[in-house]
Amino acid sequence: MSRISVRGFAVASATAVTAVGAVVGVASGNEGVSVDDTEATAADATIADIPAGAQAQVQTASLTQQADEQSTQADAAALKSAQESARKAAAETAQNKKDAADEAKAKKDAEKREKAQVASRSATRDASDFVTKGSYSVAEVQGMARQMMASDQFQCFSNIVDHESTWNYKATNASSGAYGLVQALPGSKMASAGADWQTNPATQIKWGLNYMNDRYGSPCGAWSFWQANNWY
Q1: What is the dihedral of CA 175, 176, 178, 179, to 10 degrees?
Q2: Is 131 exposed, middle or buried, given 0-12, 13-18 or 19+ CB atoms closer than 10 A?
């Protein structure tokens, strides 16, 4: 008969080892054997050392332990999988919320820009209402600008004009040819707003507003770009 070690049946836990030792002790008539001695004996015992009637119990104990270990491993794997799924679900939910918030903000910003554009464009229709004069003071030109755009856009427009021409509607850049309040390049572009673009600041303001609205959404959009780039 081959001597198959009890260890071959994975009797590794203290409970299983003690059970084997108890079987060996009872089978040999040594009822007074201590638990430690029993465990040592069981660890070195083979199936052949155990009475035939007790071998089934030993094998059952070993298989039960294996089943318990496999169950524990399966539970751990299931827990890990559940945790990973929960992490992914949480990340996806967070991303969806961020995307929704970004979309809402973009929509709100677009609506705000549209309102500014409508207000500014509506105001430019009054450009032709100003009386044509031979010359205009800075205060007069600024007064025109205030009446030709939404009040919340004037300061941004003014900031750009301050830097570009200091409100001189005849300002000319000798090197580039840029002309007027908003330094259109070339100045002749402003003819689309009126034939008197060289002498009428209202015409220049009208053209400048149209340019800022079309390219940047509003004078304040143009000013934000100017601040970042020193041109617009």
Answers
A1: 30
A2: exposed
In which region does residue 33 sit, left (phi positive, over 0), alpha (psi from -120 to 50) or beta (all else)? beta
Predicted confidence (pLDDT) per residue in 82-114, tens digit: 998 998 999 988 898 898 888 888 888 777 766
Q: Which residues contact 64 (CB under 8 A, 6 or more apart)?
A: 16
Q: What is the pLDDT of residues 43-52, one digit of tens each?
A: 455 555 666 6
Nearest of 188, 190, 186 to residue 210 by alpha carbon:
190
219-230 pLDDT, tens digit per residue, is 999 999 999 999
**CA angle in degrees (0–180, nearest 5) for 99-101-107:** 100
* pLDDT digits 0-9 by tens, 191-208: 999 999 999 999 999 999
Q: Are 19 and 28 in contact (CB under 8 A)?
A: no
Q: Can you tell me whether residue 179 is helix, strand or coil?
A: strand
Give yes or no for a contact between 42 and 20, defined as CB atoms under 8 angstroms apart: yes
Q: Is the pTM of this model over 0.90?
A: no
Separation CA 172–CA 229 (nearest Å): 21
Q: Name residue 172's beta-bridge partners.
A: 179
Who's near 90: CB < 8 A, 6+ residues apart?
none
Question: What residues contact 156, with CB distance under 8 A and at least 6 apart?
Answer: 218, 219, 220, 222, 223
- Cβ-Cβ contacts under 8 Å for 154 (sequence gap 6 or more): 145, 146, 219
